[in-house]
TrEMBL record:
Organism: Agromyces ramosus
Pfam families: Pyr_redox_3 (PF13738)
Source organism superkingdom: Bacteria
TM spans (from-to): none
Entry's Gene Ontology molecular function annotations: flavin adenine dinucleotide binding; monooxygenase activity
InterPro entries: Auxin_biosynth/cation_transpt, FAD/NAD-bd_sf
Protein name: Putative flavoprotein involved in K+ transport
Keyword annotations: Oxidoreductase
Length: 370
């Protein structure tokens, strides 16, 4: 076992972590990023193959390095993963991959101890958690009552239609991932039922040059809606409860694909899923697109994580735990906080508030063998 002593430890080397890391590197801070994936960018490569991002290229690149997709193109998850890996290499950011943090505790002197899965430990004055907002699937309790013959999976674990059993498919949850999965399944020849309320949709096709430009204006506008206003606080509550509107997919796309719409699935009877109006849905596969939450179970500090699995924080600063912060959480400050458009502003605020980059000489991080 070895011990590493740092000024700042960053948990997670996705987009938010790399943005934080670049700022720390520019300030000469003694820091490392710890990520449980084998390669930087795997959190994007591991998503479903049909995924395409919504953000225009002009707003998609991380500070200092443009993503190499066409001017009006939207990258796939795999392309985004490759870009993040290239970003880390380009700026020489100190990322320790295949390094899972299994426990975070507070020390008597106010610092932190991170226990890694390989037995090593890290001691840090500050810890910034950037491990992502969508790691742990959320499914309703009655999912366990479905007939065992029905295959079940969650959108977090969905990669492509080859995972679906032969026969009809029920997709529960009609937001962006749910409609993506429904269109995937319909394209593979399945009879598809999509359950859930329509969350609203962007009223134009984003996959055209003019709409790409308009989309940039829209995204900037969403960045301006923050928790500083009553409207922003109301929107935050709504988003955390119901998710965001459809961006690329439209009700007309689902209708053309033959996707059948039903209301919310709220119970199971005789092993079959039932909608709120009593409609029983036949399904060989149920894909739960019912939300997810961060994986923060490794934080062993009282009061930091709420009963809902979300951090107790204000603008990313952990409530009642000085030195601990988060970047990349849903609506951390604005509608765009969990997107690339909002992360850099949130990272700047967190680092300034923590004082994580002040008065730090440029030195190599020491490792002390046990």
């Amino acid at each position: 076992m070895s011990t590493t002593v740092l000024r700042t430890a960053v948990v997670g080397a996705g987009a938010a972590g790399l943005i934080v890391g670049k700022r720390l590197a520019e300030q000469g801070v003694r820091f490392e990023l710890f990520d449980d994936h084998v390669r930087v960018g795997d959190s994007w490569r591991d998503r479903y193959r049909s995924l395409r991002l919504f953000t225009p290229r002009s707003l998609l690149s991380l500070p200092g390095l443009r993503i190499d997709v066409g001017r009006f193109a939207y990258p796939t998850g795999a392309q985004m993963g490759d870009y993040l890996e290239r970003y880390a290499e380009h700026f020489g950011l100190p990322v320790r991959t295949s390094s899972r943090v299994v426990e975070l505790t507070r020390l008597a002197d106010g610092g932190f101890r991170l226990q890694l899965g390989d037995g090593d430990e890290v001691l840090a004055e500050h810890v910034i958690v950037t491990s992502g907002a969508h790691r742990v699937p959320i499914v309703p309790a009655f999912a366990s009552e479905l007939d065992p013959s029905i295959r079940q999976l969650h959108s977090v674990d969905y990669r492509g239609p080859e995972q679906l059993a032969a026969g009809p498919v029920l997709v529960v949850g009609a937001a962006n991932s749910g409609t993506d999965v429904a269109l995937d399944a319909a394209g593979a020849g399945h009879v598809v039922t999509l359950a859930g309320r329509h969350p609203g949709h962007v009223p134009f096709d984003i996959d055209t040059p003019i709409s790409n430009l308009v989309g940039g204006i829209f995204v900037r506008y969403m960045r301006s809606i923050t928790i500083d206003s009553a409207r922003g606080r109301a929107m935050r509550a709504k988003e955390l409860a119901h998710g965001v509107m459809l961006v690329r997919n439209k009700p007309a796309d689902l209708a053309r694909a033959g996707v059948v719409r039903v209301g919310r699935i709220d119970r199971v009877e005789a092993g079959r899923p039932l909608a709120a109006d009593g409609t029983a849905v036949d399904a060989a596969t149920v894909v739960w697109c019912t939300g997810s939450r961060p994986d923060l179970g490794w934080i062993d500090i009282a009061g930091v994580v709420g009963d809902d699995g979300l951090p107790t924080e204000h603008r990313g600063l952990a409530t009642g735990c000085p030195g601990l912060a988060f970047v990349g959480m849903p609506f951390q400050y604005s509608v765009a906080s969990s997107t690339l458009v909002g992360m850099d502003r949130d990272a700047a605020y967190v680092l300034e508030s923590l004082g994580a980059g002040r008065d730090e000489p440029v030195v190599d991080a020491p490792r002390v063998a046990a």
